[in-house]
Amino acid sequence: MIEILKAILFGIVEGVTEWLPISSTGHMILLDEFIKLDVSPEFYSLFQVVIQLGAIMAVVILFWNDFFPFGKKDNPYPLAKDGLLSYVKVDKVVLWIKILVACIPAAVVGVLFDEQLEAMFYNYQTVSIALIVFGIAFIVIENRNAHQHSRIHSLRNITIQTALLIGVFQLIAAIFPGTSRSGATIVGALLLGVSRTVAAEFTFFLAIPVMFGASLLKIVKFGLSFTMQEATILIVGMVVAFVVSVFVIKFLMSYIKKHDFKVFGWYRIVLGIIVLVYFMFLG
Q1: What is the spatial distance between Cα 160 and Cα 209, in angstroms, rounded to a whole number?
Q2: Model pTM score
Q3: H or E stretch including 30?
Q4: What mean pLDDT is reported for the chain?
């Protein structure tokens, strides 16, 4: 029962921190320091990644009509007037091309160097520095953008080149834990002139292939030989992450319509300092 309660807590933290640009990894490291799951190191490594499937299902359900490329109803851009091709939504297909292009850098590096990168950079020093650096980046970029107008206000206006450049920022998050995948892609998008709401939406959509791919990679390496306790912990964590993610995504999309990301920048800086000080002197 205690392990189930821990899984619920991990699910809550995942659901909140996966979508807010504050680094789920940084929070998971702190949480693991105080509340350790009684599982094998191999399963815990898998749990930290696969629990994200619950979070990503929230995006799939909330934004289904915004990215699903098939359907006759409300299809202003059919591939053909009649037949099966009339069910293909050209604008959504183009969106998926942009998403997949943006995922190429992180996918290539993840498949080739996943274990090496985790061994090299998965430590409190990297996490704390990444938290602070990207926290400062949020504040600096938002201060700059206060005097400029965004030039990209629709997903349709994101070019293939812009998508690839956003993908390079996502690669930074794949290499350096604590950067925050959503934080890195939002910072990149803002730098490229994308509006806050479009930057957040594109970040959410990028998470779909990235998280499914990362989870599949971990499951292939770990296998499907879960104990009953491990399976229960994983399912509970995923379900809680899904429910919490629904509320957090709705909150964030509403919040950034009237506010900027600077509050998250300041939060990251404070958290980075806390992580650094704690592990240097107390951990």
Answers
A1: 17
A2: 0.89
A3: helix 24-34
A4: 88
